[in-house]
Amino acid sequence: MSSISIIGLGNMAGALAARAVASGHAVEIIGRDQAKAKELAATLGGGATVGTFGAVPVGDIVVLAVPYASAVPVVAQYGDALAGKFIIDISNTFNADATGLVIPEGTSGAQEIAKAVPASAHVVKAFNTVFGHVLAQGRPLDVFFAGDDARAKADVSAFIESLGLRPFDVGGLAMARWLEGVGPLLMGLARNGAGTFDIALGVDLPG
């Protein structure tokens, strides 16, 4: 099992941390609010620890579970503390009413984060196509991911699979823009055709 550091204290961070602890991973919780981080770690149990915001994360895989508006400033603050890490960006980049993306054409949130981390760190986009409350239900879900570094993708894929989820590689990090575009699609589907947010996208493999 891997050592996983999660930067963030929101619902998605909690859901990922819970599945990681249940799967036997060593989990480090990191947040600006140390009291909330300690509370989440205590709730998780399983030996979950609390890290110091801005210090070198313990995990080889670092889950960046903060809103996109905070993501680049956070990794910039960490600087060389993220050297050599595999960073999973789970953020969505849609606008306030979830009708479009705030990122300019030709890039993605994940690519902008990748520009801000040390050269030896590698960003993988994943988990942004799954609602946090659905992830927390423990259901077997499909998780789409994108990245440019083969080893980072292999490790992230293995991590996803260890959580009882099916990993699907969609290509290089440039594909992250299209994964981020799934956000407004899911929101529109939940509000309209599905009529519920208790949904997930999946792949149906024939045979």
TrEMBL record:
Keywords: Oxidoreductase. The keyword Oxidoreductase applies. It holds the Pfam family F420_oxidored. Signal peptide: none annotated. InterPro entries: NAD(P)-bd_dom_sf (IPR036291), P5C_Rdtase_cat_N (IPR028939), STEAP_metalloreductase (IPR051267). The keyword Oxidoreductase applies. Residues 4-92 form the Pyrroline-5-carboxylate reductase catalytic N-terminal domain. This is NAD(P)-binding domain-containing protein. It comes from Actinomadura nitritigenes.
